[in-house]
Amino acid sequence: MSSSNPNSKIDLLDPPEVVNQKIRKAVVVPRVTEGNGLLAFVEFVLLPSAALNGRREFRVERDRDGLEPLIYTSIEQMHKDYANDIVRRMSYFCFMDLILTVFQLTPQLLKPAVSTALNKLLAPIQAAFQSSPEWQEITLKAYPPPEKKEKKEKKVKKMGTRHPKASNAEASNAKANNVEVNNIEANNVEVKNAEAQEQ
Question: Which end of the chain has fewer CB atoms surrounding its CB within 10 Å, N or C?
């Protein structure tokens, strides 16, 4: 996580929908525990904070699959379940195979569980912030909102007389200038002819 990229970090005052969005965007490879940011977050933030509240556990709901929730009290079991999605094959009556897939822990289950636990952890902090005008004032002083930049005015480009978007006024001015130039050139030619005849 980098504080220079606002989408790669979660602030204590991020609203729940922003936290959910950031967790959803997290890149998590199925069955790979090494370098998995969400598992590390559970290990170093969510499990210890749950222990401080008196109950060291992390709960993964599986209601959408109609299964009981997974409850983890150690990160080792969580790593094991994440690395080993279980596929069981059961045979019935020797002629029919039924494949039952029981996903222990997948990114699709882990991400909502992390979002829920994190929002639950941040809720008291955010409530204290909302009820404290002094804290809000300090936050504004420490992190002032970015100044809005004034938009630069675009320079009007002059288009040639033959450009389709050239206005009639520009075109007529250009024609008048061309006529004047042609008249000057014609006068110059006449002067040169007259000088040539005199010699």
Answer: C
